[in-house]
Amino acid sequence: DTAVSQTPKYLVTQMGNDKSIKCEQNLGHDTMYWYKQDSKKFLKIMFSYNNKELIINETVPNRFSPKSPDKAHLNLHINSLELGDSAVYFCASSQVSSGSYEQYFGPGTRLTVT
Amino acid sequence: SQQGEEDPQALSIQEGENATMNCSYKTSINNLQWYRQNSGRGLVHLILIRSNEREKHSGRLRVTLDTSKKSSSLLITASRAADTASYFCATGGRGNKLTFGTGTQLKVEL
Q: Which of A30, A79, B87, B88 is most solvent-facing, going by the fewest CB within 10 Å?
């Protein structure tokens, strides 16, 4: 069974559109994250949720809005997509409350904005 | 930016040789982690070393941490073609926020 899954795997859309990426983890973890990896492979955290509560919100345009309906899901909605949003977006999870800090990553969603 | 630097950016070795990657970071840390990323895939956690530890082993992996120099190294011994991937260090901070390094692309040739 896939531990951290994301849908879709690929997303091609035009500038100005609104799109969502979904993430689910079946590990029972209490914390989930969104990362962005650009074309140079730089990975940067965007958001983190612990038990559905937002705990990390990096300097991200407010066109990006995360939503955590429950502990196992963290979705990312992006409004008014721009060319610079093209990247690979990774979801991850960890069980912070038990002192386990390693993060488990999903396979990524490659977003291409044209 | 708090992003760490990794050195070298790219490394090509023969199967059976050892590979060493270095990571430098800028702020105080709770822990430092190493991840592997195969082409087109997600990251896989390799090893975590806490700020009060100096060395850690896991299979063919050996990690060192020097907090006074704000640096870490990852040694992969007896490399295999399957080790070909990008390797990232990441420092763990408040809220388990990971700050990633720039990555080292390792190619292991037969």
A: A79
